[in-house]
């Protein structure tokens, strides 16, 4: 059992404290502590800790995820430390002392000077000038030498058209050679030089030449990852939310404006009188994803939002009868949980080195301490680093991560049929299926990869077929719309696509090569997909389209188009769509901050479309919610793109995510 408890931390705080989050100075010296006693889960609650004394203990290393985002002063004198690279997790560290750790050398001093950009004092000495030399001059010299070594000895060995095996062989030879032959500075710093040369060489191969260092489907642990995670309480999270004001003249009912100043079609003119008016009021405009909590941040892009599912209490709840008003949003370095009615940021989770692109919910039945089972909502969040974070929201705790891909993850989603099955779609042109397992009472869990779907281009949006979610998955990709058979079978972990769908093009023909940046099911059979060029939204039938494939056994099939939704003429990409199946709605934002809404409760495959051809049926929006006039710091916000818009299952709330770091929440009257 760990020597460190909550009670001990509160007692050793200077001065004594009643809450972990209030502790700024902590003395844990002379406790005979070992590395295993430093529990990351407990230390993650010390989010305001600035000074930590761990001197006169038995530490041989630091855990790689202590999560002390505000740590400025660290004393670990008189321990048994063997390595200092894990200190990179404390980027704000200004004063560091590790005297009388017999295994540490001058090479370690240089490593921490390079890793910790804010470090001023090391073992009581001012190292500002030397550290600047190490980070700049030393790095420039070594970079020049590494580049010259490649140009002289290895550049001509890599053919212009090379195989993966050839590239891997050259990379391994280069890394070994460059560490042996590149020399700089005194021999006493040879270990530090080799460490930096390897780092620079890896960066050179990856960024300058586009050569990845590992090609295995599952990346290895990177122990030097600079990661700062934190969770914030409702009060603390609320302090980070900047106020964006709406001019009173704009806070009124937003009536149907299907025309929106654009060219009107015959179908629009004929149906305009019949179009319903969905009265909606803008409730809140929040700026809660700012980088570094800056009130001047109007650049952070917001990408994904999902409403929290209701926990079952004995029986399964109908989402139409009772729906959660809590939504998870992500963008930049943070994930937020927001109460849509009050506009309160309930919780906030940050990773300083991450940019989150997607979030997804699942409900797991977990065993709690008294051996009773209880349902808990788990949030998965992923983004640029290719890592999936698993967050137990009720406990305000990120209990684990899955290193899913080496490149960014564009989107994630859980299977509705199996609560532990998570799909991750990545810029490595793969879609992976994971079993995330169920954590025990100590949050131990085991994740495993079940399936890898090979795509021809980057997958942007994924959707499981509602009638057979364990058999077929669709993906909208940079190069088209694809379908895979995902039925789990032994010895068939990797899968090519099973069907590629053709759509009408601007010239009256058909094409498979187009960016599909919006994809969702409106009901069990009707798919809504958006192609960025030309800017159009199609309704099409899964069963009729895939039935064509089954009859002919061909891989390329024509999507059976049911209708086209009239939308903005913009050719901007990644303005995605969503659906509210229970209410029969489709939502899509545009380049002016407006939200286009289509009410399609009765549309199905009962229509008789011309297969593979552009349908004559064009449906205007039921309503367009116009972006109100917003002012931040006295200036009007302009050039607002709506990246995503999602409603809760009952269509009570509509959450709009923008390109200017504003989350807008509308409420249906």
TrEMBL record:
WD repeats: 402-436
Domain Leucine-rich repeat and WD repeat-containing protein 1 WD as annotated: residue spans: 279-668
Subcellular location: Chromosome, Centromere, Kinetochore; Chromosome, Telomere; Cytoplasm, Cytoskeleton, Microtubule organizing center, Centrosome; Nucleus
Biased composition (Acidic residues): 215-231
InterPro entries recorded: Leu-rich_rpt, LRR_dom_sf, LRR_LRWD1_dom, LRWD1, WD40/YVTN_repeat-like_dom_sf, WD40_repeat_CS, WD40_repeat_dom_sf, WD40_rpt
Biological processes annotated in GO: chromatin organization; DNA replication; establishment of protein localization to chromatin
Residue intervals passing through the bilayer: none
GO CC terms in record: centrosome; chromosome, telomeric region; kinetochore; nuclear origin of replication recognition complex
Keywords: Centromere, Chromatin regulator, Chromosome, Cytoplasm, Cytoskeleton, DNA replication, Kinetochore, Leucine-rich repeat, Nucleus, Repeat, Telomere, WD repeat
Basic residues: compositionally biased ranges: 248-266
Segments for region (Disordered): 211-280
Span of domain Leucine-rich repeat and WD repeat-containing protein 1 LRR: 7-200
A molecular function (GO) term: chromatin binding
Family: Belongs to the LRWD1 family.
Protein name as it appears in the record: Leucine-rich repeat and WD repeat-containing protein 1
Taxonomic source organism: Ceyx cyanopectus
Encoding gene (name): Lrwd1
């Amino acid at each position: 059992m760990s020597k460190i408890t909550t009670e001990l931390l509160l007692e050793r705080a200077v001065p004594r404290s009643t809450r972990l989050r209030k502790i700024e100075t902590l003395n844990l010296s002379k406790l005979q502590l070992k590395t295993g006693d430093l529990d990351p889960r407990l230390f993650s609650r010390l989010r305001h800790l600035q000074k930590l004394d761990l001197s006169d203990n038995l530490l041989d290393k630091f855990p790689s995820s202590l999560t002390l985002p505000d740590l400025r002063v660290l004393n670990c004198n008189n321990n048994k430390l063997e390595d200092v690279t894990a200190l990179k997790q404390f980027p704000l560290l200004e004063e560091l002392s590790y005297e009388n750790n017999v295994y540490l050398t001058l090479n370690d001093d240089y490593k921490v000077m390079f890793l910790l950009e804010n470090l001023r004092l090391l073992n009581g000495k001012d190292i500002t000038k030397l550290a600047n030399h190490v980070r700049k001059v030393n790095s420039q010299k070594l970079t020049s030498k590494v580049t010259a070594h490649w140009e002289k000895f290895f550049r001509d060995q890599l053919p212009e058209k090379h195989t993966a095996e050839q590239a891997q062989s050259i990379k391994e030879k280069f890394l070994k050679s460059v560490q042996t032959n590149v020399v700089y500075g005194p021999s006493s710093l040879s270990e530090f030089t080799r460490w930096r040369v390897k780092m620079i060489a890896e960066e050179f191969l990856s960024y300058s030449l586009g050569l990845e260092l590992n090609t295995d489907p599952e990346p290895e642990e990177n122990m030097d990852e600079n990661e700062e995670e934190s969770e914030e309480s409702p009060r603390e999270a609320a302090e980070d939310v900047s106020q964006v004001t709406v001019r009173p003249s704009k806070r009124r009912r937003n009536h149907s404006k299907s025309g929106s100043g654009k060219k009107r079609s015959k179908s629009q003119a004929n149906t305009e009188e019949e179009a319903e008016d969905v009265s909606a009021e803008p409730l809140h405009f929040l700026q809660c994803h700012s980088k570094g909590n800056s009130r001047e941040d109007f650049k952070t892009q917001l990408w994904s939002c999902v409403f929290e599912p209701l926990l079952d209490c004995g029986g399964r709840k109908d989402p139409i009868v009772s729906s959660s008003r809590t939504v998870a949003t992500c963008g930049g370095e943070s994930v937020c949980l927001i109460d849509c009615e009050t506009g309160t940021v309930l919780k906030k989770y940050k990773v300083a080195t991450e940019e989150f692109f997607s979030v997804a919910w699942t409900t797991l039945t977990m065993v709690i301490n008294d051996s009773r089972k209880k349902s808990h909502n788990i949030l998965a969040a992923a983004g640029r680093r290719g890592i999936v974070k698993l967050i137990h929201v009720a406990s305000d705790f990120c209990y684990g991560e899955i290193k899913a891909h080496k490149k960014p993850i564009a989107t994630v989603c859980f299977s509705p049929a199996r609560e532990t099955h998570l799909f991750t779609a990545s810029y490595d042109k793969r879609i992976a299926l994971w079993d995330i397992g169920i954590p025990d009472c100590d949050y131990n869990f085991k994740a495993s990869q079940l399936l890898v779907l090979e795509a021809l281009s980057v997958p942007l949006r994924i959707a499981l077929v509602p009638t057979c979610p364990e058999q077929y998955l669709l993906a909208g990709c940079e190069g088209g719309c694809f379908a895979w058979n995902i039925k789990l079978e032994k010895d068939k972990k990797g899968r090519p696509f099973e069907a590629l769908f053709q759509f009408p093009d601007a010239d009256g023909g058909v094409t498979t090569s187009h960016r599909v940046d919006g994809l969702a099911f409106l009901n069990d059979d009707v798919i809504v997909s958006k192609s960025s060029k030309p800017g159009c939204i199609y309704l099409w039938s899964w069963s009729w389209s895939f039935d064509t494939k089954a009859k002919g056994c061909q891989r390329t099939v024509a999507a059976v188009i049911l209708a086209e939704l009239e939308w903005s003429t913009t050719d901007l990409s990644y303005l995605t769509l969503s659906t509210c199946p229970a209410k029969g709605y489709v939502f899509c934002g545009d380049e002016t901050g407006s939200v286009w809404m289509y009410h399609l409760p009765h549309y199905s495959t009962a229509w008789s479309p011309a297969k593979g051809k552009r349908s004559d049926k064009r449906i205007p929006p039921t309503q367009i919610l116009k972006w109100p006039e917003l002012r931040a710091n006295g200036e009007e916000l302009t050039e607002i793109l709506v990246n995503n818009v999602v409603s809760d299952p009952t269509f009570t709330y509509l959450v709009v995510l923008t390109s200017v770091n504003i989350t807008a929440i509308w409420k249906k009257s």
